[in-house]
Amino acid sequence: MAQYGFLGLGIMGAPMAANLIRAGHEVTVWNRTAGKCDPLVAMGANRAATAREVVAASDITFAMLADPAAVEAIVLDPNGVLEGISAGKGYVDMSTVDETTSRWVSEVVTEAGGRFLEAPVSGTKMPAEDGTLIILAAGDEGLYGEAAPLLDIMGKKRFFLGEVGNGARMKLIVNMIMGGMMTSFCEGLALGAKGGLESADILDVLAAGALANPMFAGKGPLMAKGDFTPAFPLKHMQKDLRLAMALGDNLVQYLPSAAAANEAFIRARAAGLADEDFCAVYKIFTD
Ligand code: NAP
Q1: How far is the CA of 8 from the centre of ligand 1 (A)?
Q2: pTM for this one?
Q3: Is 171 among the catalytic positions?
Q4: Which of 25, 43, 197, 204 has the lowest tally of Cβ within 10 angstroms?
């Protein structure tokens, strides 16, 4: 029976790994904060003491980590990914990172004899729980084919975008648009409130027309009642905007509204909102 590994059991990684276990797969898990492994071990996962152990025990290891620094740390750690890689093993990084980080992981994993796929996801906590993520894969196409049944448990749609870096670019572009939409939405709600309009009415009007979308429909009522429980932590949204700005810089692309959105999220981080949901950026427009 094929063996699978999962590194990083945060808001997204835990439900994604849980879906693999529920589907009957043999999964070995590791997380920096070890206690987050407990619910998955209770579901039948094997517990590993290090990332190296996970990779050594698995044919394909999936990773869902915070940011480029976390991805790099786990690969290079003396008890990390590279120490467990051997010929033919697959490493699928689903974290949202920049293309430079992704290409570097691809190079070192491949040099160690392994195979690499980047596979960042679009979708948040609930799609991770429901197995309805959108998966943006690129890299080793053979590994993509082998991982496909697992990706189909975690997601409802998947794309293979060619060489490593294209998945990272696609993901950053999606989230750059999302960050801009969210700040624009917040400005509209804040202006409406100051102008004496009910937020419920604004949401109803938006939902009735061409601007209707699941993000406004999902986040709007939560924002109106002040529920900023993190599904997508604000610090990660700002990380994605920062990485999108760097991509724009590298490609000499004019991105004025994304730059403004990035500034809004930086201000929100400075206001202590990093660990709240990304829609908590609303508070900087209303406080
Ligand atoms: P999260 O809840 O903050 O989880 C982050 C994970 O990374 C945790 O397992 C954390 O370990 C680990 N980590 C952080 N720094 C580390 C380090 N230096 N060494 C080892 N492990 C480290 O984040 P998330 O929401 O699951 O997001 C994970 C990734 O998916 C991010 O790249 C995010 O941008 C992306 N993403 C998120 C969403 C969403 O809606 N949440 C949607 C799409 C994509 P600890 O438990 O020890 O802190």
Answers
A1: 7
A2: 0.97
A3: yes
A4: 204
What is the spatial distance between Cα 111 and Cα 190, in angstroms, rounded to a whole number?
Answer: 52
Report, in angstroms and rounded to the nearest whole number, the Rg of the chain calculated over CA atoms. 20
What's the CATH fold of domain 169-285? N-(1-d-carboxylethyl)-l-norvaline Dehydrogenase; domain 2 (1.10.1040)
How far apart, in whole angstroms, are the C-alpha atoms of residue 258 and residue 241?
Answer: 7
For 188-219, the pLDDT digits (tens) are 999 999 999 999 999 999 999 999 999 999 99
**pLDDT tens-digit map of 245-287:** 999 999 999 999 999 999 999 999 999 999 999 999 999 999 7
Q: Among 6, 7, 12, say which to mutate for ligand 1: greatest number of ligand atoms within 8 Å of CB.
A: 12
The beta-strand segments (E) located in the chain are 3-7, 26-30, 46-47, 60-63, 90-93, 115-118, 121-122, 133-139, 155-160
CA of 191 relative to ligand 1 center, distance in Å: 33
Q: Say how far apart CA 193 and CA 270 lie, in whole Å.
A: 24
Answer yes or no: CATH 3.40.250.10 is held by domain 3-163: no
Domain ranges within the chain, ordered by starting residue: 3-163, 169-285
In CATH terms, are 3-163 and 169-285 the same topology? no
Residue type, 177: I
